[in-house]
Amino acid sequence: MAFELPQLPYDKAALEPHIDARTMEIHHGKHHAGYVKKLNAALAGHGKFLDMPVEDLLREVESVPESIRQTVINNGGGHANHSLFWEIMSPDGGGKPGGDLLQAIEKKWGSFDAFQEEFSEKAGSIFGSGWAFLVVDESGSLSCKRHSFQNNPYMFGSTPVMGLDVWEHAYYLNYQNRRADYIEAWWNVVNWSQVSENFSLATG
User: Fold this and answer.
1) How far from each other are the two terminal CA atoms of the chain, in whole angstroms?
2) Do 58 and 153 lie in a common domain?
3) Given a cut of 80, is residue 151 above it in pLDDT?
4) Ramachandran class of 128: left when φ > 0, alpha when ψ lies in -120 to 50, beta otherwise
5) Which of 37, 135, 148, 181 lies at a CB distance of 3.0 to 4.6 Å from 130, suitable for a disulfide?
6) How confident is residue 1, by pLDDT bands cut at 50, 70 and 90?
7) How many other CB atoms sit within 10 Å of the CB of residue 82?
8) Which residues span the domain enclosing 187?
9) How far apart are CA 171 and CA 69, in angstroms?
């Protein structure tokens, strides 16, 4: 077994004008593909880990041999983070969630707007490259987290239900250094149906 690059669930131009086709082409076909290739190479000869879902691999990353552990964190995290990222966007996205997820957000933050403001602040304040996540912790509570590089919440005992890539390769062709503009535009493509499903699975 080996890890595989997932197909995009929409055409690479489908998220325009918020995320342009050329960025999607490079981001998915070069960056994400590169993480998958390097992850498989690092785990060659370690069949136990190649047979794991990437989520379990990251949960148990401390059991990976130290000589390859950081490579697995970098590339396994990159694979898991991007696999989530593609799924939680849609050309029909935007707005806000409903149902149990909205109730949980309003219970935690008081309002959807307050949650959105905190999440955007987390994403905007990452120094250098990283991700902002909406996560469910072991008690079932929601929180916003930021992680540097390709670190993933599974490594810290939480389950990510939504993630925003703020590496420059995610936005630089279209937005250059205007990360805040990218973050604001990204809310227009969030696939709340998928985020809600992720939340249900994480709390079920």
Assistant:
1) 29
2) no
3) yes
4) left
5) 148
6) low
7) 24
8) 99-203
9) 29
